[in-house]
Amino acid sequence: MNRFNGLEMGISNLARVSDAQTRSISPENFKGEKGKGGMATEGTGADCARDLGIGWKVSPSVEIAPGEIFTMADIEGPGAIQHIWLTCFPTHWRNMILRMYWDEEEQPSVEVPLGDFFCNGWQERCDVNSQPIAVNPAGGMNSYWLMPFRKHATITIENKEPDKVVLYYQVDYTLTEVPEDMAYFHAQWRRSNPVPYGEVHTILDGVSGKGQYIGTYLAWQVNNTGWWGEGEIKFYMDGDKQFPTICGTGTEDYFGGAWNWEQPLGKYSTYSTAYLGMHQLINPDGLYRSQQRFGMYRWHILDPIRFQSDLKVTIQDLGWRSGRRYLPQQSDIASTAFWYQLEPHTPHPSLPSNDDREVI
Predict the structure, then answer these.
(1) Is the CB of residue 117 less than 8 Å from the CB of residue 259?
(2) Which residues pair with 212 in a beta bridge?
C-alpha cells in the first residue's frame, strides 16, 4: 500500500488517514506550536478581554507600523501551506506587499500587492467564488493554493502605507513528506499604465526552469470608448521566439466568456465560477470616476500550461476604431501571474513604487 502524505486532498481522499500533522498560525499562536494557541496575555483585544483573562480573545490581530515588514509565518518543513485567510481595510490593499520564500531562498517566489493576490486589485471589495481564491463579505480573503516546501517557509507582509495597518490572519498548514516531483508556488505582479501605443502588456517573462502556469488575474482600466477586449493572450514557451505555441482568440474568450460579456444587450454581465470569472465591474459615476474598470481571473487547474525550460506570457490591448479596424489601446493593466516551478527561479523585476502602484 502506498503511504498517503495528506497533500493530495479532495473529496475522494478525505477518508484516508495519514501521519501528516495539521498546524495553524495566527496572532493567537504566532509559531503554530502544538497546544500553545490562545495563551496570549497581550494583544489588540487585551483591553476587551480584561474581565475574562487568558484564553479569551486577547490577540486576534496585529498592528503593522509604517515601513515594517511583518512575518506572518515562519515554518520548519517539510510540509505545505494549505489555506490562508486574512483581512484588512481595502484602502491598504495596493500598499501591503505579500511575499513568500521557500527553503530559505533570498529572493521571494511570491511578491504581489495584497489585494491583487486575492483578485481584488481596485481597492474596492468584490466577492470571488472560485476554487483556489475566495473573497467573502465583507473582506475575508482566502487562498487554497497548495504551497509545498521541503526545509522552510516564510510569509511576510510589508506595510508601505504612511499609517499603521491592523491585520487579521490565519495560516493553516500540514507537516508531512513532500514528493520529489512537487514544484514550488510562485506569483508575480506587473503593471502597464498605460500600455504603450502599439505594444502589448507582459504578464510574465524571464521564467527559467520546469513547471506549469496555473492562473492569471487582471485589473483592467479602459481609457477609450467602445468594446476593448479584442486582444489575444499568448504563451511563449520552451524556446518560442517570434510566435507563441499557445494563442487565444480574444480577452473575454480567455476568461471563459463570449461576445463582449454583453447580456442583456447594452450591459455587461459579471460572473464568478470555480475556474474563471469576470467578477468585478466598476462603472463611471459621472463625476470623478471617468473610466470603466474590470477584474478578471482564469485558473488553469484542470488545464495547466506545462513548460520545460522557459515561459513568457503577454496579452494584446486591442479595441475598435473607425472602418472596422482594430485599435491599439493604451489601457491601465495590472496583472498577477501564478505558476509552479522547480527552483531556482529567476528573481522578479523590482516592484514599482507606491505612486506607480497607486489606484488613480
Answers:
(1) no
(2) 306, 340
What's the half-sphere exposure (Cβ side, CA atoms, 13 Å) at 339? Answer: 29
Mind listing the pLDDT tens digit for each residue in 216-238? 999 999 999 999 999 999 999 99
Who's near 87: CB < 8 A, 6+ residues apart?
139, 140, 141, 167, 168, 169
Identity of the residue numbered 52:
L
Task: Delimit the domains of the chain by residue range.
Answer: 61-357
C-alpha cell at position 262: 454583453
- 355 sits in which H/E element: helix 354-357
DSSP E strands in 301-341: the ranges are 305-307, 310-316, 318-321, 325-328, 332-341
pLDDT band at 4 (very low <50, low <70, confident <90, very high): confident
Looking at CATH, the fold of the domain delimited by 61-357 is given as: Jelly Rolls (2.60.120)
Rounded Cα distance, 172 and 203, in Å: 29
Task: Give Cα 174 to chain centroid, integer Å.
Answer: 21
356 φ/ψ angles, rounded to the nearest 5 degrees? -80, -15
Q: Phi/psi of residue 225, each to 5°?
A: -85, 170
Instruction: Pinpoint the alpha helices (H) of 104-209.
Output: 114-117
Dihedral of CA atoms 31, 36, 41, 42 in degrees, nearest 10, equals 20
Look at residue 1 in the predicted model and tell me its pLDDT: 43
Query: Are 59 and 45 a contacting pair, CB within 8 Å?
Result: yes
pLDDT, one tens digit per residue, over 28-62 is: 999 999 999 999 999 999 999 999 989 999 999 99
Question: What is the spatial distance between Cα 138 and Cα 171, in angstroms, rounded to a whole number?
Answer: 19
Q: How far is CA 273 from CA 23, 84, 143, in A?
A: 30, 20, 15
On whether the pTM is more than 0.90, the answer is: yes
At 62, list the grid cell: 496585529
Cell for 155? 510569509
CA–CA separation, 110 and 1 (whole Å): 36
Q: How far is CA 224 from the centre of its chain?
A: 27
Residue carrying C-alpha cell 487565444: 248
For strands 184-192 and 110-113, give the pairing. Answer: parallel
